[in-house]
Amino acid sequence: MDRKQKMCTEFENDILSNKEQKTVEELTDFDGVTDSDRDFLRYLQQSRFNSVLNSEVTKKLLTVNTNSREKIDLLLQDNIPQFIENGDRILRELELLGIAVSCLQTFVQNNWLGPINTTDTYEWLSSNIKEKRKDHTFRTSIETDLYVDGEEIYSRCIGIEYLYIARIILLEHRECIRSLQTWSWWLMRCLAIHQCILDDKSPTIKATCIQLMDELSKTEPLLTDDSNRDLIIQFNLEAGYLSGMVL
């Protein structure tokens, strides 16, 4: 593992376990890293998810709309490949993960932990989508996209768009990711949250999560190296809880 990959892995692990160890100024091995990149990663380290979503980095992914898309999934379909290829690939993958994590954590904050994020959900989305949201069918279409195995979602969820974006990035675009080890872990968390807001449990989500658990348990060195003992314990606790209580 080269120095840059090792640095990325350490940063991933710190975010996963909510540790703030590596200073952003140390991330000098990434090609073309800018002040905006450093700000983004610092916000992510500090769990300032609203700042992450309003950052210049996030705007590159969610505001640029060259094809005038009016649906979030199509916007991301256009922008994610270009976002990853435009710059240091490892850094871009890490930032893409950061956007998904921030969306997921904001959804959890709004619906479980509090306080509710009062920022306009669409403030950082393209103008076409901001305009389209005025159509009463816009939220309905997002909710429908989140139905799984015929199970509908709880209609009073706050900021369902956050979960929607996180799920699209983590699940539908995971084939774009080559360098990150914790992507599947965050996907597992995302699907578990999705399962919690369905009317009844989805066999599809359960099967996917079990598959992810199996894959993660064999991920080297994330969950096989004794130096990651704390993460191994954390994974086993999470997997056990999800298997017994959520899935």
Strand and helix map with partners:
Blueprint (H helix, E strand, L loop, with lengths): L2 H14 L18 H11 L3 H5 L2 H7 L9 H14 L3 H25 L13 H6 L4 H9 L14 H13 L10 H14 L6 H15 L11 H18 L1
What does this protein look like?
This protein has one domain (3-118, 139-246). The chain is 61% helix and 0% strand. The chain is mostly helical and 247 residues long. It has helices at residues 3-16, 35-45, 49-53, 56-62, 72-85, 89-113, 127-132, 137-145, 160-172, 183-196, 203-217, 229-246. The protein contains 12 helices and no strands. It is globular, with a radius of gyration of 18 Å. Keywords: Repeat, TPR repeat.
Question: Descriptors for this entry?
Answer:
TPR repeat; globular; repeat; 247 residues; mainly alpha
Radius of gyration: 18 Å
Helix-strand makeup class: mainly alpha
- Helix-strand sequence: HHHHHHHHHHHH
**Extended strand count:** 0
Short account of what is shown:
The protein is mainly α and 247 residues long. It has helices at residues 3-16, 35-45, 49-53, 56-62, 72-85, 89-113, 127-132, 137-145, 160-172, 183-196, 203-217, 229-246.
